[in-house]
Amino acid sequence: MIVPVRIVRALCALGALGVALTACGGPRASSRVVTATATATGTPPHPVVASRPPTLAPGPAGLAPVFEHGPRDRGEKTVALTFDADLTEEQGARAAAGERFDNPRLIATLRRLKVPATVFMTGRWAEEYPIQARSIGRDPLFEVANHSYGHQAFSADCRGLPTLAADRVAADVERAYTAFRAAGVADPMPYFRFPGGCYDRRALRALRASGVTAVQWDVAGGDTAATDPAAVARDVLERVRPGSVVALHCVRSTAPVTERAVRMIVPALRERGFRLVKVSELVGATAATTS
């Protein structure tokens, strides 16, 4: 099939626009391309820039949108397992002294079980474990999303975390994306998870400039400081519903039993007919029902 010149020019313009958007900071448009089949005359194929991952429309008064779970009534039981890879700036000295804030065994188990997952990563974690960050970010089984740079709270009185000033929110989010790219994560997702899960209108207003969808959860895994993986698995399985977003952790130091809990959670969910998906699929399904 011969591609009309008008379409070729339009595609080139879209490609240039993607480059321009990338230069402006914030979550970068996907650099993955879909290559069209060459024509019978031997014309070189034209690369088509993949569309941006799905996000939700801004909330009232232009606030950043907040996503907690996917559709409940799609006729299909889907659930997203998410993992927070936390490391604060203050914990850097502990990491340098040998304390482990990564969890490569968990990532290996997710790969072995073929579990799609979304990893909400702090920029500081990516700086401490760049090889692991790059490996996760380049694995099509996973997607990397933003969990701030140094895990400071975006609202006051949040689980004892130091509070980030409102005028530093956009810069903090971008600093995390910069850390991801420096580690080799080519396509971080335009999703953001508030440290501690805490936010207010001020935080949503400040976050809007970053162009991200804030992703919360409806099932807290309760794996932080847990010592019994069976209890974590039981808690998740009792509360999960179609469209659920489950929040767990990818930190050996503070969530040491997560990998063993996942080995119980995943087969049980599949036995119940759940299909495990990334957050982007649930966001896309939600956006389609509200558009």
Describe this structure in words.
The protein has 291 residues and is α/β, with parallel strands linked by helices. The protein contains ten helices and eleven strands. The strands form three sheets. Strands 4, 5, 6, 9, 10 and 11 form a six-stranded parallel β-sheet that branches. A three-stranded parallel β-sheet has the order 3-8-7, with no helix packed on it. Helix 3 runs parallel beside helix 9 and helix 8 runs parallel beside helix 9. The radius of gyration is 20 Å and the shape is globular. The N terminus is likely disordered.
Element order: H for helix, E for strand:
HEEEEHHEHHEHEHEEHEHEH
Radius of gyration: 20 Å
Quantity of strands, as a count? 11
Largest sheet: 6 strands, parallel
- Give the low-pLDDT segments: 1-25, 29-49
Helix/strand structural class? alpha/beta
The CA-CA distance between the termini, in Å, is 33 Å
Strand content: 5-15%
Average pLDDT, to the nearest integer?
Answer: 87
* Helix amount: 25-40%
Shape: globular
Helical segment tally?
Answer: 10
Which terms summarize this structure?
291 residues; alpha/beta; signal; 37% helix; globular; Glyco_hydro/deAcase_b/a-brl; disordered N terminus; Polysacc_deacetylase_ArnD
Helix and strand arrangement:
Layout: H1 5-23, E1 33-35, E2 47-49, E3 66-67, E4 78-85, H2 92-96, H3 104-112, E5 117-121, H4 123-128, H5 130-138, E6 142-146, H6 169-183, E7 191-192, H7 201-207, E8 213-215, E9 219-220, H8 229-239, E10 244-249, H9 258-271, E11 275-277, H10 279-290
Parallel strand pairs: 3-8, 4-5, 4-10, 4-11, 5-6, 7-8, 9-10
Antiparallel strand pairs: 1-2
Helix pairs in contact: 3-9, 8-9
